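Suppose you are handed a protein chain with no further information: no name, no annotation, nothing but its sequence. What can you learn? This example shows the usual starting point.
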Amino acid sequence: MPGLLDVILGYDCNLACDYCTITPAMRARALSPEAVVAAMREGRRLDYDRVAFTGGEPTIRRDLLGLVRASRKLGYGDVKIQSNALLFTEANVARLVAAGTSRFHISIHTHLEPAYDALVRRADSFAMMEAGLRQAVASGVHVVVDMIVKTDTYPRLPAAIDWVADRGVPEVHLWFVSLTDGNTDNVESLPPMTTAVPSMRAAMARGRERGVEVKSLHVPRCLLGEDWRHAWDPGSQRVMVVTPEATFELSQSRLAGQGQVPACEGCEFESFCPGLRNDYLEAFGDAEVARVRGREPSATGKLRLPVLARA
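A reasonable first move is to predict its three-dimensional structure. Written in structure tokens, the prediction is:
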């Protein structure tokens, strides 16, 4: 069965985003090029036919072009680069495409310059990101923009969709902020889902108007109401994550939904919804899901049922 090999080359980055889960200690860890090639060979043996290079920030590695070329030689038909686009000059983008890159995923976090520079904690970086985004779109390969949904960004989501649409971006993914590793104690960054969902749904409506496909990656379908079709669970596909420490299925990642709560029983989405993340349950419990299902919250607000097999 084909699938995606998601390779975290290393955790170092040229930004220091205020919600980042990467700790200072993690930034020192990276895969060697030999380890990456070995993982890609094993991936092809197991019939993985797509590969993603992410981090950290993969474009700060001098061996990235060689790794992209190696992935194509090994037979990967789709090659994704996940980046903040700060180093996406015209020449760099052209080299990545010539080497075999077939899609760019670009994290823009938020679309307003002062807010962006404050969020990434690097002055004058917004102009570099925007220029890099334009170069990626101009290259002709598929471009996806990733936006973080957190307390200070979710109100601006509808306007952000207009911003990316004006720049020719066809697809946007909405990532709900996670309280893991380096962001564990940043509790104020995590809004209740029911607080953020109205802005998310307004962004989805704006996307439909502007011809931009908008996907939500972490909010259960029951909380999205009539927009539940915008929910997407990457872990429902065959995705193997390769990191400097371990290799595991994406469905087992702490950044993916990890379990259902008692109120999920009997839901029309029960057989394939991954539920909520542990960090979210620890912060807010299961009252939101229980309310929309017309049920009582569990006694602890954290009780989970086993994760079901993905459809």
